């Protein structure tokens, strides 16, 4: 890919060669022969046009015309192109008329005026193309810079959210084990083993941007095993994970967070216990996760719904923008959590 400076020179050379070629074709069509004199004249036009255009560019850079807005830029461009047209006219008259054609040149305003205006218009077109080139390339560079900045910002935010998620999960899991220590020390030891497996997997997953649903469900199953040990018959677990969804990519610990939220704010608060049900399917190319848990969702108690839900919403927003859907509603005396995630490859 050409850098900005190289692209400028390639455009300059090709543009002025094309202009000299058009002038040559016009001379041949009007009856002039393709002589050495014509070739030298065309070469002179190419070199003069290129040199004056480049000198004009250096003047633009030196005087920093790019800092001006359009109303202040227009008179400067008009004056610059007029001076360029005058310079080219005299250089062309001296080099071509006197040195190449060897005619006696005498300045005549009536004859000079149309030629100067023609060159001025040519440089006006050149100026418009140059400034357009400058603004477009600068705009693209700014756009790329902004995209890189936004990507870096999102990466920092995602890392921050993931670093917050692990302590939150560990804290809740330790509370579950603490409840078992006095009730059943043997089960507590088994729970500690389960917790170590869960923590090891969660820490490994936390380093990845995206993981497969299959890997996520291994962690979820370990976590549910830990909670089943705690609640025993008070917790009923149902899973309906379609095979074609297991390779779908999603942010790590996302399903686990929602399952944990359902148990913490649903089943654990019901004396008779309840059910946690996890369903997965593909809907219009998107991963659809539906989690049901016993209980009632009260929208007026949003501050009490836990850190995990806030974390989930923020992560989805950063990674997918408005393309992901996350909803929690009451349905058939249960709480339904809907998660719809678009397909996304690992970056």
Structure overview:
Strands 2-4-5-7-6 form a 5-stranded mixed sheet, covered by helices on one side. A two-stranded antiparallel sheet has the order 1-3. The longest helix has 75 residues, at 109-183. It folds into 2 domains: 4-107, no CATH class; 150-341, Histidine kinase-like ATPase, C-terminal domain (Heat Shock Protein 90), CATH 3.30.565.10. The chain has 8 helices and 7 strands. Helix 1 (4-29) runs antiparallel to helix 2 (36-62), helix 4 (109-183) runs parallel beside helix 6 (213-231) and helix 4 packs antiparallel against helix 8 (307-320). The two termini are 23 Å apart. It has 347 residues and is of the alpha+beta class. Strand 4 and strand 5 form a beta hairpin.
Brief synopsis:
The protein has helices at residues 4-29, 36-62, 70-100, 109-183, 185-206, 213-231, 254-265, 307-320, and strands at residues 211-212, 235-241, 249-250, 274-283, 286-294, 325-331, 334-341. It is α+β, with helices and mostly antiparallel strands. The two termini are 23 Å apart.
Protein traits:
347 residues, alpha+beta, Heat Shock Protein 90, 2 domains, five-stranded mixed β-sheet, two-stranded antiparallel ribbon, 65% helix
**What is the H/E order?**
HHHHHEHEEHEEHEE
How far do the termini sit from each other? Answer: 23 Å
* Count of discrete domains: 2
What's the CATH H-level superfamily name of the largest domain? Histidine kinase-like ATPase, C-terminal domain
Shape: rod-shaped
Biggest β-sheet, characterized?
A: 5 strands, mixed
Low-confidence stretches: none
Strand tally is 7
Specify the CATH class of the largest domain.
Answer: Alpha Beta
What is the tally of helical segments? 8
- Judging by the overall fold, what is the CATH architecture of the largest domain? 2-Layer Sandwich
- Give the helix level as a range of percent: 55-70%
């Amino acid at each position: 890919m050409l850098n900005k400076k190289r692209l400028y020179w390639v455009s300059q050379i090709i543009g002025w060669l094309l202009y000299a070629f058009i002038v040559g074709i016009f001379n041949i069509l009007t009856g002039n022969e393709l002589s050495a004199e014509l070739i030298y004249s065309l070469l002179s036009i190419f070199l003069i046009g290129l040199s004056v255009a480049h000198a004009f560019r250096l003047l633009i850079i030196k005087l920093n015309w790019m800092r001006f807005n359009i109303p202040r830029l227009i008179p400067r461009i008009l004056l610059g192109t007029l001076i360029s047209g005058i310079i080219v006219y005299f250089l062309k008259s001296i080099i071509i008329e006197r040195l190449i054609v060897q005619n006696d040149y005498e300045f005549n305003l009536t004859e000079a005026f149309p030629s100067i205006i023609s060159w001025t218009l040519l440089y006006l077109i050149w100026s418009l193309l140059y400034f357009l080139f400058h603004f477009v390339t600068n705009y693209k560079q700014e756009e790329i810079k902004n995209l890189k900045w936004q990507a870096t910002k999102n990466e920092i935010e995602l890392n921050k959210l993931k670093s917050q998620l692990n302590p939150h999960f560990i804290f809740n899991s330790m509370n579950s084990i603490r409840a078992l220590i006095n009730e059943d020390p043997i089960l507590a030891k088994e729970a500690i083993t389960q917790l170590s497996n869960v923590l090891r997997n969660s820490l490994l997953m936390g380093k990845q941007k995206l993981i497969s649903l299959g890997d996520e469900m291994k962690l979820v199953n370990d976590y549910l095993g830990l909670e089943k040990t705690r609640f025993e018959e008070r917790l009923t677990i149902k899973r309906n994970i379609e095979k074609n969804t297991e390779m779908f990519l999603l942010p790590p610990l996302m399903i686990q967070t929602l399952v944990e939220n359902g148990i913490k704010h649903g089943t654990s608060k019901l004396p008779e216990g309840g059910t946690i049900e996890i369903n997965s399917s593909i809907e219009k190319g998107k991963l659809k996760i539906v989690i049901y848990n016993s209980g009632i969702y009260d929208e007026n108690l949003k501050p009490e719904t836990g850190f995990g839900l806030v974390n989930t919403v923020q992560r989805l927003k950063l990674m997918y923008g408005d393309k992901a859907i996350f909803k929690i509603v009451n349905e058939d005396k249960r709480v339904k959590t809907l998660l719809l995630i678009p397909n996304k490859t690992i970056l």
